Here is the input.
Amino acid sequence: MDKRTSYFEDITLLKDRPVKGWSLLGLLLFGLIPFVLAEYQVFIANLVLVNIIIILGLNVLVGNTGQISLGHGGFVAIGAYMTVILDEGWLPFLPSLILAGFVAAIFGFILGIPSLRLEGPYLAVATLGFGLAVTIVIGRLSFFGGHMGIMPPQLEVWGMKLTTNSHLYYLTLGIALVLGVFARLLIKSRIGRAFSAIRDSDIAAASLGVNVVRYKTMSFAFSAFYAGIGGGIWAYVLGFISPGNFTPVLSILLLSMVVVGGLGTITGSVLGATVITLLNLQGEKIQEVPLIGPFFEWVSVHYMSISGLPNINFVFMGLTVILIILFEPLGLFGIWMRIKIYFKTWPF
Amino acid sequence: MKQPMLNIKNIETYYDRILALKGISLSIENGSVTAVLGNNGAGKTTILQTVIGLLDDQPEKGSIFFQGRDITGKETVDIVKMGIGYVPEGREVFQELSVLENLMAGGYMHNSASAKETIEKVYRYFPVLKERQKQMAGTLSGGEQQMLAISRALMNRPQLLFLDEPSLGLSPLLVDQLFDIIHQIAKDGLTVLLVEQNANKALAIADYGYILENGRFVASGTVEQLKRDEDVQEFYLGIKAEESVRATQRYKRKRRWN
Amino acid sequence: MIGQLIMTGIVAGSIYALVALAMSLTYKSSEVANFAQGEMAMFSTYVAFVMLATYQLPFWVAFGGSLLFAFLLGLFLHLAIIRRAKDPNVLNLLIITLGFQVFLYGLAGWKWGSEQRVLKIPVSQTETVEFAGLIISQLNLATILVAILLMISVYILLRFTKLGLAIKATQQNETAAKINGIPTRRIVAITFGISSVIGAVAGILMAPITTLDPNMMIEPLLKGFAAAVLGGFNSLAGVVCGAFILGIVESLFGFYISTEFKSIVAFLIIVIVLYFKPSGLFGTHYTRKV
Here is the structure.
């Protein structure tokens, strides 16, 4: 928006004083959340943060590198189960989490290999198959608790027992910040540019010396790592995980968050994850919303079925996704940009 | 004065933000062969695409009249229905359909009985197509595909035919044969607008010509007039006017028409 | 025993084939892999159910009504939604169809709840017929026959009718089709309509076998999609072959190796096949021009 005068300016994280100021303020506000919101709402905030982490990674893969993944739920599952199993007796929490992330990353790398040859619907099917396979395998092996699922042990970090949602919140916020900054740095780095080159034209990129094989698999691994970390934390936020958490619906949800938020941008990831997560959760309990809730109840009784009302969640989600893509392909980030531009060029 | 069959008035066409046609005016008389010459990127194909309605929301400015009716900005399907045929650059035949199916597709707007009649006519111009009628279009040679593309456009029995670089990618011998047939088709009554890079062949069969450079017409007139123009001779016909002093060209002869 | 298994596989394959055919038809027309196919079929099946159960209409009327609804739904998807996309790249179109699928899923769940319903059809599920030494239920036999009949109809449509020619021409080269006077927008919309009808038939065939609930088409959709990829999206005959192969292999795998992991066998095969033939078994590989 403001003219950049040097390349360094383009890639630095905090550009100038106003940006630094806003960032600090934002940090402060986020830090205060557990004090202002009720316990249950902090729980929701945790869910949002978990999704933000996952989407930060997925967006790099889909938005920056231009690949499709309909099976990212699989990586989330891997991260979740791995973390819990390792934490149960082998390693403390943080190392478990990180190791689980790396395990997910390895699987991401493996999934990246077919991506070298496939694109479009073919790649979609391959990733879909992967996601489904993970769910099925986890569900059938009793080592993973089978259909019943497993419960993570008491969360303990550096000797402190984290028992409440608020404790978890700060931990998750910290991790999210670190990962967010890292993702941002990555996008603006040489590697990030290689990703973009692949997205725009992988043949041209290859002819310019970009090692497509290396970067494509790297991108998959990177996004899988983030998904794994997110999954690991998710297990502790929920307090319980089972295969039913990781169906293809999850993968579709994640992909929607990326697209609705805005491809290829950090802000987009945050916005998309937040909005869709909240929409999803609230939709399930639509009756509690003032005004709108009773209206839909009334419609249900007269035209639809009242028992099916929670499904309205999906109606909203589907509609939102379609409308965003039709009218604002840049997603929420695009809308945010428009607002910024409008105010910047006000009063014209 | 009789109304020209096609009258293009001052059209401007944009490709995204690039102004490709900067005020083009052109008129075509019934029964004539008009050639539009120019190098790559001059905008020749853009003119045809604009007229036939393939570019959305174009032309930005100006108007196009066909047989007295305003066709500016209309849908391709409607324009083609009025009697304009288009043979695109690069042939664009339906690769996975047979020769016969390609022709039937060309005759889509007619019922199959009259289409079959037209097919017979077309086979008279291009007998090789009849031989290969069951063959898949993608397996034909370049020249045969060109003939197929032209025949397919003829299936609609147009009054005006747009030919976009028919000589592209063909051997000189084939180009000669092809242009003979095109000349014959024109003599049989079809009005032709021919866009070509091969100026010699084009001017050989045309009545009128226009020279396009960078989106503007820089010369126009009857073919005799154009052939006599020294600039046209040097830059488009390859006839050098004079040797320079030391038998090497020190500087290129300047164009006089800007 | 193996004959019986193959027969089961063919029945399943018939349904996958219809789904795969439907997806391939729209993919060839508009580069859109229509993920909403499954839910569209499911919704149309519900329409049939409503006509049968609530309005007590005779079966064939309900069947026809459902197909009509499916056709209109396909038109709607294309004209009202896909045509409006500002930036129609692969990912966006994919997400749009996913969004539509989720929307329909929610709508169906909201309207009819998640209880399972029974779709009454005039063919018995329990009475059996003997065929080539194998025992097959009337329903399964009907499924195979209807599916084959539909596939043949589509073949005839594409090969011998003017509409079929227009569809093929539009699929291969939209610009060239336009300049020959083919109304491409209408043709693609009709293609979506036809594809939706095929999907609806698949749904109606499936409902008596499993049950009618909003989830019923999810697995067939995935399998049908996988079959289409296996056979190669570009070739209609290929996707049908892929579907039957998938059905049979799945059935055999389920019995001889493990019923539990039967579902992922589909995807395993696909990943392996795609590794060696990235365009599917019968797909033609178009080299990309840069």
Notes: The mean pLDDT of chain A is 82. The CA atoms of residues 132 and 245 of chain A lie 12 Å apart. The two ends of chain A are 16 Å apart (CA to CA). Chain A touches chain C through 54 residues (CB under 8 Å).
